[in-house]
Amino acid sequence: MMQNAYGDQCLGRTQCYDWFKRFKNGRESVDDDPCSGRPSTSTDDAHVTEFNAIVRSNRRLTVREIAEDCNISVGSCHEILVKKLGMHHVVAKFVPRLISQDQKDNRVTICQELLNRANDDDMYMRQIITGDRYGSMAMMLRQKSYHHSGLVNFLRDQKKLVRSDQTSKSC
């Protein structure tokens, strides 16, 4: 009857009787009991510091290569990298998800240096080339059309498609 009213979030009859029996026998906590068994030794602090040193020295290592170097399973290696060290895989290297304070300070100094250059030299900003992937693709197609006169119509049609994508997507 309770499950009809509350759905899956309600305990079943047998489970309610089981919990009642446990609390009647003296149990005071609803938390799980500690499980007996072998503790995990592959994801301890020693392995975490070792992994951190390995990844910082060479970011292009794969999970399998790191696992083979440390003689642990690939799953434990991935768990240390993602959950313990907070890294994720970008293109072909592991990078931290959050940047450190030194990296933030370095970015601020570089931006200030670029701003000072722009303020000192009026022509500096005109030398910077900006664009997204669609703008650069359209420029490449335009250059190709001059060199391959036989494909001008084909490239012109592609260029129009690129422009329509460029106008439909906002930055």
UniProtKB/TrEMBL annotation:
Gene3D superfamilies the UniProt entry points to: 1.10.10.1450
Highest taxon above the source species: Eukaryota
InterPro entries given in the database record: Transposase-MT_Hybrid
PANTHER family: MARINER MOS1 TRANSPOSASE-LIKE PROTEIN (PTHR46060:SF1)
Protein name: Mos1 transposase HTH domain-containing protein
Organism: Aphis glycines
